[in-house]
Design a protein that fits this description.
The chain has about 220 residues and is mainly alpha-helical. The chain has 10 helices and no strands.
Length: about 220
């Protein structure tokens, strides 16, 4: 048998990154999967506001440095940030419209988290661009399921205020991202790969902290 066929294939960088951040994955997954902890539309506003702050900081971070970093990943992340923000703002507008229609009261609460620059700081270096993309793209993979749970829990009409969570483009975009990440991992220096792992852990922590702060008390127990 041909030796080339028998030779073991290198583990993809995506797989290595996933294996190295299992604890961080579990924490963020628990927070994202807690729509049943939402007690009112105010709680959904707080969650969407937290995501708005996260994505706005990413958008600012990738725009701040125009150098070619992460090959085209910086530009792709900017497009994703703009798309995410548009959907978040549409969801918030629908919730406010529902308030005016009498479904809820006083949804214009202040945000529970602030832009502290932690995410944008990661975007200064190429490994950090890949790290932020990995965390934020991956956080939306099961959004369709979460959207249905949100609608059921808050008794919202299906499709109302769940545009951010139920973006149909996420699945294909995630598959394409995985291929780009693996391609980068094959040519990156060991020091850059190590930095990407560290940056991914940091990105997970920042996003999880902000979501946890935005969740109602019942969602944090």
């Amino acid at each position: 048998m041909n030796d080339a066929v028998m030779a073991p294939q290198p583990v993809s960088f995506f797989s290595l990154l996933h294996a190295a951040t299992q604890e961080e994955h579990r924490r963020l997954d628990r927070l994202i999967g807690l729509p049943t902890g939402l007690r009112s539309e105010k709680d959904l506003v707080r969650i969407l506001t937290a995501w708005d702050i996260v994505w706005a900081e990413v958008r600012a971070g990738v725009q701040r440095d125009r150098r070619p970093a992460g090959h085209d990943e910086r530009a792709r992340l900017l497009v994703s940030a703009v798309r995410a923000l548009q959907r978040i703002h549409a969801d918030l507008a629908e919730l406010m419209a529902g308030t005016r229609a009498g479904r809820s009261n006083h949804l214009d609460i202040p945000p529970s988290t602030t832009d502290d620059g932690l995410l944008s700081g990661l975007l200064d270096a190429e490994p950090g661009v890949w790290a932020a993309s990995y965390v934020l793209r991956g956080s939306r993979i099961n959004g369709g399921t979460v959207a249905v749970k949100i609608s059921d829990e808050l008794e919202l009409p299906l499709g109302v205020a769940t545009s951010y969570h139920s973006d149909d483009a996420i699945g294909p975009a995630w598959a394409a991202f995985r291929r780009r990440l693996d391609a980068w991992g094959r040519i990156a220096r060991d020091v850059d790969r190590d930095q990407a792992v560290t940056a991914t852990r940091e990105a997970f922590t920042v996003v999880a902290d902000r979501l946890e702060a935005a969740l109602p008390a019942v969602g944090r127990t």
